[in-house]
Amino acid sequence: MSKETDFIATALTLSKTYILEVGFRSVRLEKLLSSIKCSQTKFYSYFGNVNEFLAFVLKEEWRKMFLVIQSHLKKGLTIEKCLEIVTRVRDEHIGQSPLLMRYREESNFFGKRLQALEKSVIDFEHTMLNDLLVSYFHSSNAITSAQGLKTNKPCLSSDS
Predict the structure, then answer these.
(1) pTM, rounded to two decimals
(2) What is the DSSP string of 124-157?
């Protein structure tokens, strides 16, 4: 791996402990920088800002989850069975991920500062789910009849 890839992987790993400790709403730049052992200049160069970094951390968790979901989808499933498996595996994965559970617990109480993070995560999950289903069924027309796939409701809210 390159130095950049190593730095990003290390930042992801080290930040999770801090985020779990204080929660998404209480992340502070100075403490985050200290936890990932990074200068402010380097942080902004790689990640943009704190919300973009938090979104990046969550998206990495989603990517792992969608690989697990993909491994559970066998050939020949109906869209209903496919969605049933996706929902079941997704819920299991969220329940086993302390980071996603923490996000789920806090997301209903996000203030204005974290609304962009919430939107980014919702959009990312919708895109990943759509791409997964399109890939599985080999046609975007195959999923347009499935109800509720693209909503504005957060997929990681406490009532999902």
Answers:
(1) 0.80
(2) HHHHHHHHHHHHHHT-GGGTTTSTTSS-SS-TTS
